[in-house]
Write a structure and sequence with these properties.
138 residues; 5 helices; 0% strand
Length: 138
């Protein structure tokens, strides 16, 4: 089973990054949801993963894991902070962005708890797990 993750981990991480990027573009360009500051910051860490992981997947270059893990971890931490701002009442006041859309606005609320930051956090967590499993050992 570990062999499977080692062989296909980069591919799975790349697929998640592609889906997350296409999802963010769908919400902003088709649904016309204006991204808040924290959404933009998460995009800054997600979008390069599509290109870098795509090239690494094609070349089966597992050394890229050590360069992309920081992107996915930092992006995940930003997404976690965004989720906390949306879901924790004591932190909602901190979600008032100075310019543009407030960071505590829920454009979507599927099943009563799934918001855009939760989708982003899930994507970053999956990418981090897949990259960790795909890393080159030894």
């Amino acid at each position: 089973m570990m062999k499977l993750w080692k062989v296909y981990g980069l591919y799975f991480a790349w697929i998640v990054a592609v889906v997350a990027t296409l999802g963010s573009l769908y919400f902003s360009e088709i649904k016309h949801f204006v991204p808040c500051t924290l959404c933009w910051m998460q995009r800054i860490f997600m979008y390069p993963l599509v290109i870098v992981l795509g090239i690494a997947t094609y070349r089966q270059d597992r050394k890229i894991v050590y360069y992309t893990l920081p992107l996915s971890i930092i992006g995940g931490l930003i997404a976690l902070w965004h989720v906390l701002i949306q879901k924790v009442d004591a932190l909602k006041i901190m979600g008032q962005c100075k310019v543009g859309v407030p960071c505590n606005v829920d454009y979507i609320n599927w099943l009563g708890f799934i918001t855009i930051p939760i989708l982003s956090l899930t994507a970053f967590c999956l990418i981090t797990i897949f990259l960790w499993l795909a890393r080159k050992r030894g």
